[in-house]
Amino acid sequence: NVVLTRTYKPATKRTVGAKVKDPLQPEQKLMWARKFNPGANINLAPSDQPNLLSQAAGLHRQGINHLVIVAGSDRIEEYKKLLEQYNGKQGNHGYFNFKRISFVPAGEERDPNAAGAAGWSGTRVRKAVESGDLEGIRKNAVPGHISDAEFKQYIDHLRTGMGLNQQMNEAGGDGAGYPVFAIPTRDVRDA
What we know:
Elements: E1 2-3, E2 11-12, H1 26-36, E3 43-44, H2 52-61, E4 66-71, H3 76-86, E5 100-105, H4 122-131, H5 134-140, H6 148-161, H7 164-171
Parallel strand pairs: 2-3, 4-5
Antiparallel strand pairs: 1-2
């Protein structure tokens, strides 16, 4: 999730959820967001604002009256419903009351069957990690400037967060948690 602040600084959320939905630690999310988007000024959400509602309350406290949320097209309805439900209401997250909340889709329309980034949501990446489709991830969901060593580290972070490295060590593999298939290199994109 990315929330833009008054100065348009994207922030990654701090929450870590169930292994299957939100496997990366906050510092890992920040590291990979920066590596995948070089030059972008991406920061972690403040520790007292770990989620969308608390970030909205923080922006309201700063005097923001009009909120613009940039999110994947597949998440906009969810965020719209959530923010409209709590706009003008006190809750555990704090309080916010925006005059206008707008939503802008980030990138292409999400099509789960499409090749490339348009078809590769976080859910699809996690499913590919589980099934061992690392070539699909390398080819479709990881920017071309990411080195082979960085790609292996990214997969390792996901597998560890999802509890898969432990399972693989118990079930067999290369001793580092990877099954016997190879980690694809950059040249897989040319295939």
